[in-house]
């Protein structure tokens, strides 16, 4: 399992074992934007996701990780095409 896969699994298991939604304040749209901005500016990809962070922050962090995974997948597809061309050229 990749590092990001482990991070997502740990986060999900933590959330299932310790539902904490009632502990978090509801946010205004402005507050939500500020929390998302904080996540973008402060979270280091593949770092731990703290279960005490507001759900909006954790959501943004997961979104960031998905963006990176998608980017990596696109690069992988390009490499695979090049490799397939090499394989087919040698046949």
Number of discrete helical segments:
3
Number of domains: 1
- Residues in β-strands, percent: under 5%
Q: Gap between N and C termini, in Å?
A: 33 Å
Order of helices and strands: HHH
Which shape, going by the Cα principal axes?
Answer: elongated
- The whole-angstrom Rg is 18 Å
Q: Find the structural class using helix and strand composition.
A: mainly alpha
Helical fraction equals over 70%
Low-confidence stretches: none
Number of DSSP-assigned strands = 0
- Mean pLDDT level: 88
Largest sheet: none
Main features:
elongated; 3 helices; mainly alpha; 91 residues; 0% strand
Task: Describe what you observe in this structure.
The chain is an all-alpha fold and 91 residues long. It has one domain. It has three helices and no strands. It is elongated.
Brief digest:
With 91 residues, the protein is mainly alpha-helical. It is 71% helix and 0% strand. α2 packs across α3.
């Amino acid at each position: 399992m990749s590092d990001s896969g482990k991070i997502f699994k740990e986060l999900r298991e933590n959330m299932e074992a310790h539902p904490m939604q009632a502990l978090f304040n509801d946010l205004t749209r402005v507050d939500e934007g500020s929390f998302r901005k904080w996540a973008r500016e402060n979270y280091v990809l593949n770092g731990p996701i703290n279960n005490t962070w507001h759900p909006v922050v954790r959501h943004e962090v997961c979104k960031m990780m998905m963006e990176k995974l998608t980017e990596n997948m696109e690069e992988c597809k390009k490499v695979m095409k090049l490799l397939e061309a090499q394989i087919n050229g040698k046949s």
